Task: structure prediction
Amino acid sequence: MTRIIAGDLGGRRIAVPPKGTRPTTDRVREALFSRLDHDDSLRAARVLDVYAGSGALGFEALSRGAAHATFVESGSQAARVLQGNVKDLGVGARARLVREKALSYLSRATDTWDVAFLDPPYDIARDDLAAVLAVVEPRLAPGAPVVLEWSSRAGDAPWPEGIEPLRSKDYGETRLHWAERIGADQEGTETEDGQSGSVAP
Result:
């Protein structure tokens, strides 16, 4: 079992799959959501939780004011546990569970999300993670925070064009990578002579 740290559901416990997943520790979630709360990123947000496992990240976001969470989890056992957590917490109207491989689902998704969490297996191939990040990028609102939880031994995150890395921090064997979807005001603009350029500061 693990617990939701704060918000409307703070203190509530959720079940964790007995094997095959790696629950995010309380320390890492505390750090992650303190930053999101500070930036006011969760209020009424539509959240994407990829490689969701127990759903701890998405549920924490819902507890702290997110409007809706989409949980993507392909493991049958983990998906059953996640569905049970949705029911036990009473958040069925604000949650959607997608039982499918992340790349397959996100390649055809048409939704737009305001915040994205990705907590892949530490041994995921870099190219496989890069492919998932590439299909996440166009599905994010401009300026959307993207948080990747990955092994501290894995090196830099394979961010695609369109997602700007901001910072990373290690918590033992876990590294949190922070990035954001580049907004319209950050992209190149066309000058009067038709050349692309940047907006002057």
